[in-house]
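Re: weekly structure request thread

Next one in the queue (193 aa):
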Amino acid sequence: YINNNYTNGSTLYISGNVTFSSAVNVSLFRIVVLPGATLTFSGLAYFTDYYGGKTMLEVKEGGTVNFNGGFYFSSPEDDVVNYGTINIGKSSTYAEVYNTIFYNASSGTINAAKGSGDFSLDSYGTLYNFGTAELQRVDASSSLSLIENEAGANLECSGMNLSAATCNNYGYYTCSGTVNQAYYSLIDNYGSF
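Done, posted below.
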């Protein structure tokens, strides 16, 4: 639990190789992973309570974050911004974006290992993909959840479940498995699906 000595709004900059070997609760401050740096979470990384329209996690171009134990992002009006590489390990049974916006920039890459858990969006959870996202199963289970794959972006998954959620595709979206739509979910395709 690393938030006790940080003031609300503080920033922790990561350079070099840093590993948190157990579950971590990141609260009240933000993490910036600098170019050339690698941050590894061996256990569940739990990002909460930052509040106020700020970035909880920013991965700079050339930076890498490894979520080997999964992640949970939950902080109203806050976001995650990836310009680098985010890897979701096969032991990650939990990869949830709850009430948070997740931006994957045009230089950004998200890789989910085969066997990793669903990439889940819930209660205002939003994924804006401008880069490359190779995920396993995608699950969006709220009318307030949104997946938006932008022009020129590439999003791949092995399956998708939309339950009262929206998926807007302007780029290249490949789903090798089943796409399930339920409860007034919506897919708008303006690209290649």
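The longest strand covers residues 10-14. The chain has a mean pLDDT of 88.
Next request, please.
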